[in-house]
Amino acid sequence: MDQPRKPPTDGRPPDAGRRRFLTGGLAAGLWPLVPTGVAAAAGEGAPAAAAAARPALHLVPGYVHESARFRGRPLTEQARFTKAVPKGYGGYLTMVTRLDEADGSVVRALFPLSGHEITVHPDGTAAFFNAMDDVVMASFDPRTLEPGVLAAPFHDNYTGGGHALTAPDGLHLVETERRTYLPYSGRPEDHFGRVVIRDWKTLKVVEVYESGGMAPHQIRLLDGGRLLAIAHYGSAEWPDGDDRQGLPYIVQPCLTIVELAGGKVVHKVLSPDKRFDLRHLAVRGLDGIFAIQGRLARFAEAEAAMAGWGDVYEPDIWSGGEQIAYLPAPLLRFDATRDPVAVTAQRTADPLLMRYGQTIVYDPVHDEAIATYPSNNCVIVFAGADGAVKRVIRTDRLGLQQPRGISLHPDGLHYVVSGYWRHIFQFRRGSHELARDRCRYLTLFGHSHSTVI
After folding, report:
1. What is the pTM of this model?
2. Strand pairing partners for 195?
3. If you write DSSP's letter for every residue of 363-401 in order, what string do you get?
4. Which one of 193, 210, 236, 365 counts the least CB within 10 Å of its CB?
């Protein structure tokens, strides 16, 4: 599901005018007053005494809604699941599953987009569902899943980049948008994505500036919210129009560090091997930015790579085509306190464990980056200080197949791992012991990322 969708387009747009919405408030260090016990703050490792007493909500996208039925009929035929879908809509649909730890209740709803990650406002009143290479985005109530506002990319020739975050002022949403996929022109700049800043309540566009790279994806805040770290796939369509059975044409995978107020690119670091795209990020600080890479190859090459794997295994089901599959890809660690920015690659003793990385989070209490690798059913823990591999957890041996989503629990004590198709497990932060009594068993219908508030 991380493979780009490529809707039609008609030429390159002009740049949007900058309004420098944050130049005053953010530059002056004006942070919002956040209510006591806000789950998002505790989820980043802040003191969580208030949050610990409140059961969390889990929000998980469901890519394969066609497999979900209720009372014998598809969800698309039933009004209780389609409140957010406009009449006559014929595009992509993604289901959201909301699990409440308080009573175990599950609510589901369909949204009219190819959804990827859900971002929740720190006060818990609104959620933003960002599209992945699609032209619809949506807000909704994270508790009831009642629909809010539908929004489009800032320009017709752009699509959602998959990820978003809340600006430090609490009033604005920051998200990535990609230039619609076109055959590579020979100039990376023709394909650069954008950072789009919106009003959180209305989703109206406030400011737009270049992300500094091609096909931006995940973004994280750095340096007290002054900077953005942005991962870029670095890809376009093949210049001759042939997609090579779904293989990406990777030109310039990179990490950019951009000033949130105004969009100045402070650093741009090209990946050391452009066969790998750059996807998901976790940040320790400027001295430690962790980036998951992905590498798609022809199926025969993947078969050869897996010839040394000693267990019976399932083939990739997320590669986007029957003729391609994922190869192992090391984790990159960037140190932006050095000039030039230092880049190191981290690998497990058996590199095949790192075939197709998905989600990564940083635990500041224990100084660890924790990532999911669903192809071979494992969670890998990296030391924050130097990126060294500290632990490998084989989740299939615990009963969790294809771990995809990972989030820090707002209680400050656990982290949550969700299986691609089913089940939500919790582990104790630091010790990484499975908290079996906190696991929940339910069908999720396919996803990349999960959100816990």
Report:
1. 0.89
2. 176, 209
3. ETTTTEEEEEEGGGTEEEEEETTT--EEEEEEGGGGT--
4. 365
